[in-house]
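Standup notes, protein team

Yesterday: finished cleaning the Odoribacter splanchnicus set.
Today: ATP-grasp domain-containing protein structure.
Blockers: none.

Input for ATP-grasp domain-containing protein:
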Amino acid sequence: MKRIAIIGASTGQLPLCKKAHEMGLESYCFAWPKDAICKEYVDHFIPISIFEMDEIVRYCQEINVDGVVSNASETTALVVAYVAEKLGKQATSYQAILNIQNKEFVRQKTNGIEGLGHVRFTVGKLNDIIPTFPYPYVLKPLKGASKKGVNFVSGIKSCITVPDDLKDGLFMAEEYISGQEYSIESISFNDRHDIIQITEKVTTGAPHFVELEHHQPAHLSPSIEKKIRNIIPPILSSVNFSNGASHIEIKVNDQGDVYLIEVNPRGGGDYISNDLVSLSTDYDYLKQMILVALGEYNPVAVHHVAYAGIYFLSAYTKRLLPYFNIPLANWMVRRERKTGELTVSSSNYDRDGFIIYCSDKKIVL
């Protein structure tokens, strides 16, 4: 029986733990025991913090694991790369993941890719950037995810809100690109990049671009879809992403030009990689992530089988409230709601619930 090390035990890793069990693998989950959701779903729970990477390496060497994996988390992606590299297992290199998590590096490496729109940008401290970069622009932390600390700056009087824990760090200002936002799920193995699914996104727009809805498959013309599919592999190769799942965010403007927003070296969060891909296609995304980690990946065709998506509840989407008070409809896969007042979201962390759907057509709420 092959052994798989799973990094992290939060809700985001639970589907991966269940998939490892389904595949007949012996699973070892590494995480701090507090709030370890996955503890009861793995063969062995090892109470080592994911930040004690050398301890995880030593333990994995002792039990001779065959692969290291995680999903939907920037933090665990870095740990996976470190541990797998030390063990000589299949993964993108640790340095490559470090580089990808630096938005300046990604811009420098991708701005020259043929067919990809060029985005002007600068990097510096908040007080240095804000008055000097041409308006309008998007201000974002140089490192970070889930739209935390992202602001749209339209002029000198724009209200900029930045969490205290980010204020002293470096920021990137980049020219604002108008257009429809999409994300692309891919699997890479030994520098081969396979596009799995394209997600259409609905956001609040300026100033924080909080994501409100995701829909699969994205509604795209054949020519634009082909353009997107052709441009993703060069993006991944340019930043030396070679193995594992990735989540790339782009914008397409009215002229059909494609612009990169960011590269994420892990499967999409917000239930995209853990739920939506398996609902909208016949592709077992989580299984393939594990097979990459084990060095056993073989490309398989992807077919669309349904429409799937998610609606997030917040103060911006209070129109969804009635759908939480009716019997579960046949198109509802899952719904959850927190108690209390609805949140005026400023990042993707600020949600009050969600509804996941799957149907033979796009569900519009």
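Follow-up from PR in the comments: The two ends are 46 Å apart (CA to CA).
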